[in-house]
Amino acid sequence: MGRPRAFDTDQAVTAAAALFAAHGYEGTSVDDLVTATGVHRGSLYKVFGSKRSLHLAALRAHLDREIGPAVAAVAALTDPAQALTAAIASYDGGPAAGLLLLAAVERAPHDPEVAALVTDAVTALEDALRPSHGEAAPHLASTVLGARLRLRAQPTAPKEH
Amino acid sequence: MARIAIDREHGLLTVEFQGLDKLWTLKSRLEIPLTHVRGATHDPGIAREPKGIRVGGTHLPGVITAGRFRRDGERVFWQVKNPGKAIVIELADAETYDRLVVEVDDPRAAVALIDRSISHS
């Protein structure tokens, strides 16, 4: 039924992730998603089912593409200062920088699946800091999250999205 | 206005129409197995899009969209007077409709109710 899917699902998820990271979940309307992905509203619903499912797909992609590699790079460092600097520079970064932080604040209290993904991402950060910081890794992970939050709050030139 | 409820005993999502809306939509009630519900989204913008061809029901553009419509091969059930309160309920292939677009009193609460019900079923 319906027309064949004429769009790249990965591209749509990437565009949605950047939008959610810039405006949050509630701040991103289906109109915004239709415009940014270039995908017809009917096709978006047909493929993803709901805005919530698209947000979950975007968060999972962000974990796979950005947080996974960033954390692996940190885990390879044994020098404590280097590991901490690398984590602060790269964790929850990339084209959808801040998506994890926003999801943790806005969606995790309402959505158990988001909460589980946030827990996975934070646990991965703790594990990555263990070779360099040992027992202090959970504490340092909180420092990284706090530093990312402060970076996001810094005034910058307004981003177009 | 549609009233959304979950019948946990029978695993159903029920959508009831009251008063004149029964007349506009030619339906008083829809029952969908929860396993066929893919998700719900608050989507005020959908009412601005072309509805397609009316198969049954009432369409007074700008006033009310109610009943069965077909667009791009998809079967969509509409019941919307106030687009600001429209929610989209996406259904699995096995259903009579691909999508329901209905107006509810509290979109946030209706969407949360449906999301909760399908992630635990």
TrEMBL record, chain B:
This is Bacterial Pleckstrin homology domain-containing protein.
